[in-house]
Amino acid sequence: MRKVCRLGREVLDLLAAEVRPGITTDYLDELCHKLCIERDSYPSPLNYKDYPKSFCTSINEVICHGIPDQRVLIDGDIINLDVSLYHGGYHADLNETYYVGHKAKADPDTVRVVETARECLEEAIKVVKPGYLVRDFGAVIEKYAKSKGCSVVRDIVGHGVNTHFHSPPNVPHYTKNKAVGVCKPGMTFTIEPMVSLGKHQFVTWPDNWTITTIDGKKSAQFEHTLLVTETGVEILTARLPTSPGGPVRTPEDV
Fold this sequence. Notes:
This protein has helices at about 1-15, 25-40, 105, 110-125, 135-145, and strands at about 40-45, 55-60, 60-65, 80-85, 90-100, 150, 160, 165-170, 190, 195, 200-205, 210-215, 220, 225-230, 235. It is an alpha+beta fold.
């Protein structure tokens, strides 16, 4: 798991370095496939339940599972890159949301939703340890999101990941959920909160994959694959000092 997650981080960082106005998400998808193959890996999403591409690209109001196409990125967009790859019998799964150009970083609401999503994941990771109830992550995440004036998407959850792409436990990101399970050393799973500026409800497109906010407002997501250790947690897909797309300071931080 450590090796495949390191490879996943490499692929995501190389893709993120290419994000700029004027490119298409199809270009990123072709690059993702090439980067996976170069690492003797297979892109986990490709042909998974008929998903047609090698990773997911979710722009602006797209919450998750956006399918790469000929849509050109423009200054002011935000884009989530969701990378999953299979190597040596194990899967890695991680994603981050990036600002496209300069206009997105200048819009307070855009920065608020992106940085809130990033911080929701960070707050949840802080409490991972043996004995922690899986259902309690949601309370941490939703409380923080609401404090920033954002909502949390409910019906799409984190999950176990190892020799299977998706396995138990399910990890909801909202409070008062009914998830079953307790953290134990050796467990590997994702936490991947999806945070929106407006309502938490969503719409699924006719392609059966693309999921967007019901009100058209922007949404952001961040995801890590985590390992429960004897004393806490190891972030297997942790960012590196060279990873593109780090935090942007919000007005309250200045």
